[in-house]
């Protein structure tokens, strides 16, 4: 009966508008005793359609944030895109409002520890990028950087290689030392990733990094030249000269490292890094990519050009 009154209380019959009080009077006269105060009391207890929908959306977000901790690092905008990608038709303003009500917020970025230590004895390649971190196709520009993570067993280091076209992390490596082998293995991983997708020749690629001694070493430079790539190095002490790689490392530290610690050892960091890289490449929306994922962007490119086998 409460629902009936709520559904018809604003109806107009015979030119007259039926409110709550007249409807309760008529119903009582016909043997269904109900007072306006009773209606208002029960109506206040009955959740509205918006409240029911809010509960459903919050439940979905809680489940996603609980079962996949990386999702908990997403801000309201990225959560909206993430949910829409999962088939949930929900407005962005709704997600923003529910985030405020739940006290949720996205990960906050912090400062990156200093790992760029140049070696004055190394001959440094010129800067071929000049802060232009974009490319018309994949494998035209890669950027590289690494960072450190404190664990109970000591510091570990994580190196990344990112394709500027799609923002995809194509190579990464975790190691116990800040050595040339760390960045060389990340490069080898990137080359293997592309070879597995049918791109064995990266001739003409520019591989850009900061002026750290690991990246200016003869071993790494020789490997780049052997692969057909041109090394490029930014200036010393200027983060803007390697801004794209710095941004990716910042996302890694903010979305994973600072939210899921403490870290036990190198194995712990490596396993979770693998999970984060897959999430970053295949599920996390990127504003630069019109809210698509890196792998989606590459697949679209390859589907249009048919130059290589699409990435799985």
Mind sketching the topology for me?
Elements: H1 2-8, E1 12-13, E2 16-17, H2 20-29, H3 36-45, H4 49-67, H5 76-85, H6 92-102, E3 141-151, E4 154-163, E5 169-175, H7 180-196, E6 206-209, H8 218-227, E7 230-233, H9 243-260, H10 266-282, H11 294-305
Parallel strand pairs: 3-6, 6-7
Antiparallel strand pairs: 1-2, 3-4, 4-5
Helix pairs in contact: 5-6, 7-8, 9-10
What's this, in brief?
With 312 residues, this protein is of the alpha/beta class.
Index terms:
7 strands, 11 helices, 5-stranded mixed β-sheet, 45% helix, alpha/beta, single chain, two-stranded antiparallel sheet, 312 residues
Written description of the protein model:
This protein is α/β, with parallel strands linked by helices and 312 residues long. The protein is 45% helix and 13% strand. It contains eleven helices and seven strands. The chain has helices spanning 2-8, 20-29, 36-45, 49-67, 76-85, 92-102, 180-196, 218-227, 243-260, 266-282, 294-305, and strands at residues 12-13, 16-17, 141-151, 154-163, 169-175, 206-209, 230-233. The strands form two sheets. The chain has a five-stranded mixed beta sheet with strand order 5-4-3-6-7, sandwiched between helices. A two-stranded antiparallel sheet has the order 1-2. The two termini are 56 Å apart. The mean pLDDT is 83.
Order of helices and strands: HEEHHHHHEEEHEHEHHH
Low-confidence segments: none
Strand content: 5-15%
What is the count of β-strands? 7
Strand sequence of the main sheet, in spatial order? 5-4-3-6-7
Percent range of helical residues:
40-55%
Structural class: alpha/beta
What is the radius of gyration computed over CA atoms, rounded to a whole number of angstroms? 28 Å
Mean pLDDT: 83
| Multimeric organization | single chain
Summarize the biggest pleated sheet.
5 strands, mixed
Span between termini: 56 Å
Shape: elongated
How many helices in DSSP terms? 11
């Amino acid at each position: 009966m409460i629902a009936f009154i709520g559904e018809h209380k604003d109806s107009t019959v015979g030119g007259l508008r039926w409110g709550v009080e007249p409807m309760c009077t008529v119903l009582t006269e016909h043997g269904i005793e109900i007072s306006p105060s009773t209606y208002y009391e029960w109506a206040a207890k009955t959740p509205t359609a918006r409240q029911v929908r809010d509960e459903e959306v919050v439940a979905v977000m809680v489940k996603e944030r609980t079962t996949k901790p990386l999702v908990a690092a997403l801000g309201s905008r990225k959560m909206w895109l993430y949910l829409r990608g999962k088939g949930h038709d929900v407005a962005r303003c709704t997600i923003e409002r529910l985030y405020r009500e739940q006290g949720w917020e996205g990960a906050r970025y912090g400062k990156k520890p200093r790992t760029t230590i140049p070696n004055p004895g190394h001959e440094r390649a010129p800067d071929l990028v000049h802060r232009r971190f974009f490319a018309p196709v994949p494998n035209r520009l890669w950027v590289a950087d690494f960072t450190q993570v404190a664990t109970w067993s000591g510091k570990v280091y994580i190196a990344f290689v990112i394709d500027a076209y799609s923002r995809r992390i194509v190579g990464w490596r975790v190691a116990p030392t800040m050595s040339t082998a760390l960045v060389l293995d990340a490069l080898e991983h990137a080359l293997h990733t592309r070879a597995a997708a049918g791109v064995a020749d990266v001739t003409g690629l520019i591989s850009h990094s900061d002026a750290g001694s690991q990246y200016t070493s003869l071993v790494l430079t020789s490997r780049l030249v052997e692969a057909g790539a041109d090394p490029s190095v930014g200036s010393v002490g200027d983060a803007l000269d390697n801004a794209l790689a710095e941004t990716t490392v910042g996302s890694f530290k903010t979305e994973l490292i600072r939210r899921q610690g403490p870290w036990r050892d190198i194995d712990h960091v490596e396993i979770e890094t693998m999970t984060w890289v897959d999430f970053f490449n295949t599920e996390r929306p990127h504003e630069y990519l019109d809210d698509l994922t890196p792998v989606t962007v590459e697949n679209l490119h390859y589907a249009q050009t048919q130059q290589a086998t699409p990435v799985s």
